[in-house]
Amino acid sequence: KAGVTQTPRYLIKTRGQQVTLSCSPISGHRSVSWYQQTPGQGLQFLFEYFSETQRNKGNFPGRFSGRQFSNSRSEMNVSTLELGDSALYLCASNTGTVNTEAFFGQGTRLTVV
Amino acid sequence: GENVEQHPSTLSVQEGDSAVIKCTYSDSASNYFPWYKQELGKGPQLIIDIRSNVGEKKDQRIAVTLNKTAKHFSLHITETQPEDSAVYFCAAPKGAGNTPLVFGKGTRLSVIA
């Protein structure tokens, strides 16, 4: 059974640009959650998509957005990049049922210069 | 909202000794408590979880205990090995229902051979 796949693994962008990250969940999983991981703030929740709808949202500015497709693959977009957006972006795959295991991908390392 | 505190932030043990990491949570409605291990350059890996209807769960050298009254849960690793060296995160959902996981800040465990 394939795991969670995130692409690309690494990205370098310039301030002001935008970026799109992709996450393919485990087959059969309908929920995808996105997290930002930084040394100072740890793992912070961005948003969750379930069956193509945003089900939960964290406290991030509107520059951070996402979507989910009918095959459960999800993308997140960050517009007008800032230096502080440099982080490891992780997605977690889950069936969508309460209190079930969430499995993470390897993450996308975004560096904003 | 849910707040998860994790201690200690760093832990060094001799190979073969036990390691204990503790977490407290604030939302009494939380009822699912996973632990993740993150190795360098990888995403967090689920290693064990516990639901609120049990007080302890074991899987080989790893065990988790839960005290719902005191709102704390702990990870116990026995007979530690160098490959146990990693950052460990505890998490709890932000209340009941389909809510996102809130993570502790992490514990960097070093097992010295």
Mean pLDDT of chain A: 96
Described by the principal axes of the CA atoms, the overall outline of chain B is globular
Return the average pLDDT of chain B rounded to an integer.
94
Biggest interface pair, residues each? A-B, 25 and 25 residues
The portion of residues assigned to helices of chain A is: under 10%
Binned strand content of chain A = over 45%
Give the overall form of chain A: globular
Radius of gyration of chain A, in Å, reads 13 Å
Poorly predicted spans of chain A: none
Structural class of chain B: mainly beta
Helix content estimate of chain B: under 10%
Q: How many DSSP-defined strands of chain B?
A: 11
* Count of alpha/pi helices of chain A: 0
Proportion of residues in β-strands of chain B: over 45%
Q: Structural class of the secondary structure composition of chain A?
A: mainly beta
- Largest sheet descriptor of chain B: 6 strands, mixed
Number of helices of chain B: 0
List the keywords.
heterodimer; A: 113 residues; mainly beta; 7-stranded mixed sheet; 4-stranded antiparallel sheet; 11 strands; globular; B: 113 residues; 6-stranded mixed sheet; 5-stranded antiparallel sheet; 56% strand
Describe the structure.
The complex is a heterodimer of chains A (113) and B (113). Chain A has strands at 5-7, 10-13, 19-24, 31-38, 42-50, 53-57, 64-68, 74-78, 87-94, 103-104, 108-112. Chain A is mostly beta strands and 113 residues long. The radius of gyration of chain A is 13 Å and the shape is globular. The termini of chain A are far apart. The model of chain A has no long low-confidence stretch (mean pLDDT 96). In chain B, 0% of the residues lie in helices and 56% in strands. The mean pLDDT of chain B is 94. In chain B, strand 9 (86-93) and strand 10 (101-103) form a beta hairpin. Chain B has strands at residues 4-7, 10-14, 19-25, 32-38, 45-51, 56-59, 62-67, 72-77, 86-93, 101-103, 107-112. With 113 residues, chain B is mainly beta. At the A-B interface, strand 4, strand 5 and strand 10 of A face strand 4, strand 5 and strand 10 of B.
